[in-house]
Amino acid sequence: MRLPFPRLAGIFLSLFTALTLSSATATDPLPNVLFIAMDDLNDWIGCMGGHEQSLTPNLDRLAASGTLFTNAHCAAPACNPSRTAIFTGLAPNTSGLYENGQKMREILPDAVLMPQHFRNHGFRASGSGKMLHYFIDTQSWDEYYPEAESENPFPRTLYPDPRPVNLPRGGPWQYVETDWAALDATDEEFGGDYLVAEWVSKELSKKYDQSFFLACGIYRPHEPWFVPAKYFEPFLLEEIQLPPGYKEDDLDDLPTSGKRRGPNRYFAHIRKQGQWKQAIQGYLASIHFADAMLGRVLDALENGPNQERTIVVLWSDHGWHLGEKEHWQKYTLWRAASRVPLMIHVPADLCLALPEGTQPGSTCDRPVNLIDLFPTLTDLTSVPPKEDNDGVSLVPLLKDPNATWDRVSTTYLGEPGCYSLSANDWRYIHYANGDEELYHIAHDPYEWNNLASNPEQAPKLTEMRALAPTQFAEKKEASLDAIPALRWRAIGDKGIPPSKPDGNTFDVIFINDRENQVELYWSSPAGGNKPYGLIGPGRNRRQQTRPGAVWFVAPPGQPDNPLGYFEVGDRKARATVPVE
Question: Pairing relation of β-strands 550-554 and 564-567?
């Protein structure tokens, strides 16, 4: 059969291109990877239109150079499970790591992380800043700043003293970093992300014979929202606009689980203190600062020797509520917490899988997930895939952003059976007790109208249920050593303070390191006490409690002879009664 000349010429051209790239990769290093993370960044960036006052020229610039995914979601709306899923390629329902309180290397002691996988295939892996959840994982990197052996990913950072500056502590339930202020400091004096960007920029200015995987962890806009004052200046307080997704009666159509998950003490406290606009100003300023640090890194790449051989990926670990659904922070299954910026730039004539590179200024609205990054990068770099990935390569969407895509993006929350599904135009939320929510995102982007109980949407509800995950790994509890420790306090002249319980319940594990039995007592708000049981030598006791509670131990039956006490903070903890 004879082929028409244009078609024949096209076939020869394709073969020539493939052979040329194949020959090049046989002698040249494989593509480099610049892997950039931002912390707690929602869609408040210019190219995603989340808040019209945001100033993000460098995020917009990166998005314009490649593909912006406008329907990307995290694997979990919390730092630890999200980042663990990205770096292992394993979703929470596979790994069993669902929340921040777990410790990755306890849950997944043998997991090969992304930088190690690339090292195993000839790459040099280096990084700076927060990539994992407050640790570095020394074994996975060739070089890190600060020193990997410290396992502390943060360089020196200027914080004001005393604190808080603008938001008074509402009680022991409040995260100490929830605060904001413009600092009288230069970028260099502030340190933090400036030092991360400086180190990464120097790495990008070097010419390497070996391909590199270079990670850049920009911490802002994570709390506290302290950045140099010049980043506050564009956002005049009197002109600050409230979140466009806020609706006053937005909780009315939610099931019990949604109503419980939505309103939290932070948002109520911030409004009571008259600090809502100040907080929004602080968030916008922190995003503006993070964007400026990104600009330093992009400038270094563009002005250095590695631009034409470097794939750039930028992501945020999860979104952030600033009042939507009466909620502050993250830890929800709504779009405000699950949807994240995701940008990928691939130069032309670099990757066998994508020889034409990414289309500048292209956008893709297909539902994707951050666990897709691992297989995408191995695909783009021709590195052998990691076999146990839960995600899939996004290369088909980089080739054609409008390609058919039959997947949904799943986000997991806190416990097995609690998840959301993001499809092209719809979102479905399922709580562990069976409560459900359904939203038509194409017409309701802020999820104001829950359609789960609407009879007309029963077919769609059935359709979304059929796409839900069916297997959930057991949630693996963190060891005692991985749980934050409460301070043991000696009995002073004023005796034991009364409890001031305020907030939701959680567990504290009391550990008796003494050779004798002790008895656990709760100090009541009125100044009395109530016994809660004996703790034998070398034994421990799990006790449900609340922020602000005070617990003390004494010899059995002798509450008037206390040995010491603990004041409960804002989260699960261990309380060790020390050796005498």
Answer: antiparallel
